[in-house]
Amino acid sequence: MARATGRSTTTAISVTVIVPTYEERENIGVLYRLIRESEDAFADARGKWEIVIVDDNSPDGTADVVRRLRAAYDDPLLILSERPGKLGLGTAYAHGLKLARGEEIVIMDADLSHHPRDIGKFLKLRRERDLDVVSGTRYLPGGGVHGWDFRRKLTSRGANYLARVMLAPGASDLTGSFRCYKKNALETLVASSGSKGYVFQMEIIVRAKKSGMSVGEVPITFVDRMYGESKLGASEIVGYLKGLVRLFFEL
C-alpha cells in the first residue's frame, strides 16, 4: 500500500509537478531546488506549486532524501508518496495525479534530463492558448539532445518515426515525458490508457490528438543524466514496440 506524507496546507495551489523516482538519491535534491527557483522566477499569480514525488521503494534511500528536504526547507508542498515496488511509469503518473491539487499538472523526469526552467514556458503557452496538453519536444527548432551517443539518438529517432508513420499523432516527439496538462484532460487520458511502462508517454499524446484535445509543443533540450543509471533497457524497448502495434489496431 502506498503512503503519502506532507498533505496539510491551506495555500492556494495552481500547479502540481509530478516526479516518479527510482534510485534518484543523487539527483532529487538538485531537482527540488531548481523547481523552487523556477517557481520564484515565474512568479505565478494563480498560486503555489506543489511537488509530488512518487517513489517506488528505491533501495538507495531516495525517499529518505525527500523527507530530509521537506524538513530542512519546511516545505509542506513537497509531497512524498512511497509505493511498495516498481509498478510502472504510467501507474506512477496515475498515482501522483490522485494526490494532485493543482489544476495544471507538470510531469517530468527526476534525473535532471529536463530543466525546470522550461516549466514556465509550458505554463505560459498553455494559458495563452487554453491548451489541454503542452509537450516538450527535442525535434523542433530550438530543441535538442545533449550527451547521447549515436545509438541512443538513432533509437529515439527511430521510435518517433515509427510512431508517426503508424499512428499519425500530429506531434513531433512522442517518447519524451516532459509535459504540462490541464488536470481534467490528464484524468480523462489516464482513465482511457492501457499502458503501464514507457509506452504510456506515446499512448497519452496519441489519445489526446485522436480525441480532439488541443496540443501544443515547446522546444526543450534533453540532457543525458550525469548521476545514476538509465532505466531504459531492452524490455522497455520491446514493450514500446508491442504498445505501438496495439495502438495501431486499437486506434
Provide a short characterization of the protein structure.
Pfam families: Glycos_transf_2. With 251 residues, this protein is α/β, with parallel strands linked by helices.
Describe the structure.
With 251 residues, this protein is an alpha/beta fold. The chain has a single domain (3-250), classed as Spore Coat Polysaccharide Biosynthesis Protein SpsA, Chain A. The chain contains eight helices and ten strands. Strands 1-4-3-2-5-8-6-9 form an eight-stranded mixed beta sheet, with helices on both faces. Strands 7-10 form a two-stranded parallel ribbon. The longest helix is centred in the first third of the chain and has 18 residues, at 25-42. Belongs to the glycosyltransferase 2 family. Its EC number is 2.4.1.83. Pathway: Protein modification; protein glycosylation.
CATH architecture: Alpha-Beta Complex
- What is the total domain count? 1
Listing every helix as H and every strand as E from the N terminus to the C terminus, the arrangement reads EEHEHEHEHEEHEHHEEH
Provide the structure class.
alpha/beta
Give me the CATH fold name.
Spore Coat Polysaccharide Biosynthesis Protein SpsA, Chain A
Helical amount among residues, as a percent range?
40-55%
Compute the gyration radius: what is it?
17 Å
Q: Give start-end ranges of low-pLDDT stretches.
A: none
CATH class: Alpha Beta
Number of helices: 8
Bin the strand percentage: 15-25%
Number of strands: 10
Q: Name the average pLDDT.
A: 89
